Amino acid sequence: MTSLPSILGGLDPTSDRAVFRQIADQLREAIDRGRFKEGEKLPSEAELVEHYGVSRMTVRNSFSILQGEGLVHAEHGKGVFVRPRPPVRRLASDRFARRHREQGKSAFIVEADAAGSHPTVDSLEVKEEKASQDISTRLGSVRRVLARRRRYLLDGRPVEFAASYLPLDIARGTQIAEPNPGPGGIYARLEELGHRLDHFEEEIRARMPSPSEVKTLQLAAGVPVIHLIRTAFDAAGRAVEVCDTVMAADAYVLSYQLPAT
Amino acid sequence: MTSLPSILGGLDPTSDRAVFRQIADQLREAIDRGRFKEGEKLPSEAELVEHYGVSRMTVRNSFSILQGEGLVHAEHGKGVFVRPRPPVRRLASDRFARRHREQGKSAFIVEADAAGSHPTVDSLEVKEEKASQDISTRLGSVRRVLARRRRYLLDGRPVEFAASYLPLDIARGTQIAEPNPGPGGIYARLEELGHRLDHFEEEIRARMPSPSEVKTLQLAAGVPVIHLIRTAFDAAGRAVEVCDTVMAADAYVLSYQLPAT
DNA sequence: CTTGCCCACTCGTCTATACGAGTATGCGTG
DNA sequence: CACGCATACTCGTATAGACGAGTGGGCAAG
């Protein structure tokens, strides 16, 4: 094993940079340079206390900086580890193309199978409810909606939580109101019901998760979420669905193709 | 002034939730309910120490949670404040349409003026350099590129840092290599040079900022960045430009329109 | 050999204290 | 009245110590 001093250097007492920041800097640089690899354990708090000659709180302070940056994560009783970058899921802008609606399985399942990971969907909830102000506005002043909520997992890890909202006059009593909407998903059903889809609008934000999002997505410290709100419009120009999606940002890359008209 | 106990309640010693988390929860809830409004000062550390009967470090710990969530920010010598949500800039998917290239001013300037904010561009740098591995791949194995870097500010606040990379055989010696690329920007120049633009590809990620990004974008704690990589393709199918953009996530909403082909 | 316990090591939580540095306010001096 | 300084209040940094709780390995008993 390589000794600590050979990796981590010492402190600069003349610097006006706070000690805990200097320590965080050195650890960050060591990680960036690959001296500590993904999933590898960093020196324990006690070892760093020893190495730098500082108090334990100062070391913990350094770790908390790196946690906030999403670089490391602590495991109680085990140690602090370099956070591995999980495999990312790419969402292409043609993911709602009709040709992808042929198969019986949902886009999420098909795509994950192809990538060799094990996909799951849980927390299914389908019910009628009062529309929030925002959803109501997007759907054109509807009062109540059909809400479909579900959580997506890859290899057991939750990566996305999505809620779809549809006007009752469209969805009530149809297969869309069933837990399993059938092959091609609700978009296929909407088209069968005469709502030929014309285009989608997507709004994308990024922010830190709320405590409840941390819980349902089992997010590590320092992982933001991507908040995507998609509205589907039919050929008549009517908004027929709003899908509100919160994704673990470290699990996704969104990809769009834009014409240069 | 409303007294603290009427806003903040007490601790539950029987709960297994850590004290500093309970305090953070109460503060978060008070903020969510609007008991503390945007920009308003929270009770000082000393006041909370008094109110809860805990040590100062415990209170600071609570504040650090809320900071990580991007809910509050501390100002040395002043206090801890509810972080105001800055006005957001919406980026529509038609922002590169030819019709927007008519005017002399850049898209950023025009749009910000229209929104009533004061736009600035600084840190201009235009130079030839070695292409990074990633840029080289995206541009089709070029070794050296023309790099154009600039930082965008709204009302003095930095919101975006962008770097454009172009193959030398296209850009060298043209107005694209000048600090001011002229009306319509480099896309207008590219088309004049015979590279009629066909489409763009955009890749979007969200993550916590690196320390250098915190510096150049003057990011508050708990603010992620949106990392957007756009590649422009001409009618011949060649990648003629890659633009690497890092945006303060709290200042942007991206918006895309997708056909439902 | 297997089981179970103990112990060493890890991070988590919390207290108490000290000093430094930035900010604002009011008061006294000129 | 204007200026400057003292002062009180704010958060920032750091120390030293205590106890709790999760993990894993070694050792002893069965």
Automatic annotation (TrEMBL), chains A, B:
| Pfam families for this protein | GntR (PF00392), UTRA (PF07702)
- Asked if the keyword Transcription belongs to this entry, the reply reads yes
The lineage's top-level taxon is: Bacteria
The chain positions of domain HTH gntR-type read 17-85
* Entry-linked InterPro entries: Bact_HTH_transcr_reg, Chorismate_lyase_/UTRA_dom_sf, Tscrpt_reg_HTH_GntR, UTRA, WH-like_DNA-bd_sf, WH_DNA-bd_sf
Q: Which UniProt keywords apply?
A: DNA-binding, Transcription, Transcription regulation
Q: Which SUPFAM superfamilies match?
A: Chorismate lyase-like, Winged helix' DNA-binding domain
Q: What is this protein called?
A: GntR family transcriptional regulator
Name the species this protein comes from.
Streptomyces griseoincarnatus
What broad taxonomic lineage does this protein's source fall under?
Bacteria, Bacillati, Actinomycetota, Actinomycetes, Kitasatosporales
